[in-house]
């Protein structure tokens, strides 16, 4: 079952200029990870410090494997250096509705 993961970021105001490069760097590994169907970056039209990364995964297991990878030294990224807060929410796609 397809999973949508939404990672909401609150950027530090002083990091807005650096954010595109760090997010791009981070998403290279995300997009190449097994089970990733793609991701999009969205920016709040009234608040440039509010960013949401919308990821599509083939399954909960694929997303779980990706989250486990990010918790390792090999999967570490620099998002923490530009964010004041992060929130991850995952949804399943209901094909029967």
Automatic annotation (TrEMBL):
Residues 3-73 form the ABM domain. The keyword Oxidoreductase applies. InterPro entries: ABM_dom, Dimeric_a/b-barrel. SUPFAM superfamilies: Dimeric alpha+beta barrel (SSF54909). Keywords: Monooxygenase, Oxidoreductase. Pfam families: ABM (PF03992). GO terms for molecular function: monooxygenase activity. It comes from the Bacteria. Gene3D superfamilies: 3.30.70.100. This is Antibiotic biosynthesis monooxygenase family protein.
